[in-house]
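ok so heres the complex, two chains, lmk if somethin looks off
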Amino acid sequence: MPVVLENLGKRFGDGAPVLDDVNANIGKGEFVALLGASGCGKSTLLNIIAGLEAPTSGALEVPSDGAAFMFQDAALFPWLTARENIELALKLRGVGKAERRTKAQELLELVHLGAAGDKRPHELSGGMRQRVSLARSLAQDRQLLLMDEPFAALDAITRDLLHDELERIWKETGRTIVFVTHNVREAVRLGQRVLLLSSRPGRVVQEWAVTEEHRTDAGLAGQLTGVITARLREEIRRHAK
Amino acid sequence: MPSNSTPLAESEPAVEPVRNPEHVHAALTRTSTGKEDLRELESGLDSLQSDAERKHRIDWSRILLPVAALVVLVLIWQFYVSLGVKRRDLVPGPLDVVGQMGVLWNEGKLQEAMLTSLQRGLVGFLISVAIATPVGLLLAQVAPLRRAFGPLISGLQVLPSVAWVPAAIIWFGLTDATVYFVVFMGAIPSIINGLISGVDQIPPQFRRVGTVLGANRIQMALQVVLPAALPGYLGGLKQGWAFSWRSLMAAEIIAVGGTIGFGLGSLLDQGRALSDMTVVMSAILLILGVGILIELLVFAPIEKRLLRRRGLLAGSTR
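and the predicted structre for the whole thing:
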């Protein structure tokens, strides 16, 4: 199990707990969608798994080499070209200079950007930037890839395409992916399992398995989306005054 | 890159049978039919969403407008002088000043003063950069140091560096050391401050990316923080140069004699001592000219290139 979360809790200062008693197991090569309304501590949970923040209670087990991370905005360095951004990730990992070149080109081709390597981030569209960002997180070469709403800011056409793209790359690379989103459709489209996180405090309240059937049968997928949406709304309604 | 005109319908004869044709609207299921289809779709979208490349042409207004402004100012000056309001030896005309510059050139004084000052200014500035950059990075990255020395550095920037001239003369006598000391006290604090404010303006996301990518403290400073702060740092360098040049002139005007060479400031002071207004005006114009030249030939191209590469030039009036 690359990721094991046991009774994980997090609070900032004296405030109410953001996460409380979170339990989850994520297996090797699994694609897990972490779903929740805004303010449910999804990003905090991801930061904890990434080691960017420490939990205040409970225990967690993560791969010793850490995790790759992909942010909502591509967060590419504007002073570097697409290729150099990827090469920097390789460099900070200690990859030698000659190997960096070939590896970066391979990764660019993996995300179908083989010809755009010399462009700078501002010359790329939002979807292309996010693909470079994906290539950069793959360059980190960690088994575990954490994604924090990476497609939230993209237009619908681009997002649909990137869903296909991400699924393809996941299958090709065998990564373990934890994908945070507040979009039920996206969770159903991508995850093998969908974990629903409650809000204030965040806690895994229910999970659903998404089968290969759901990938091709829109009716089935729509049904599951409906069920999860209803459950999510129930969670949100609890906070009505 | 294939053109974006590839019709979507072409890729419809699916590799994989699609059970429910409405899936495209729902986008809950796979929307492409295979790797090739996906590549084609993406490449089409990429070319639709990217701007066409624009060619850069020489913009003549950039050259003609400043020249025109200069000509107008000189004409106004000449017009004022020819009105004869003031005595000609108090307010010389443009032609008198140009004539005087010619005389100074023939005597070799102009070249000597320019070279001496430029050399000192550049050497002083470069040493200031070499000192201020590591100090600035250190202050920006280490919070206790910043809190301790930040106010002092800001204060030093406000203190006119001319104020150091008397002290420097007492410590170092009338030597080049005095001049350089004053230049350092002018340039170093403003470069440090520019670098610090550049670092302050870095989006926090960049540091998080650095952390996630596994950068250690030194890598973070050199690979992430310094390049991210470059626009602010460059602003600091520009100001640092301006302060170097000003401090240098102040020092040269006040500290004359000894082993201190003959610079533009010395020329200015000599003009004052001889009550020769044409020499004074020549020196002032030369000092101004050097400042403008360095800005146009050194800083402006660097800054423009920096901003264009980061996509920050669009919509500016530069």
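quick notes: Chain A has a mean pLDDT of 84. thats all i got rn
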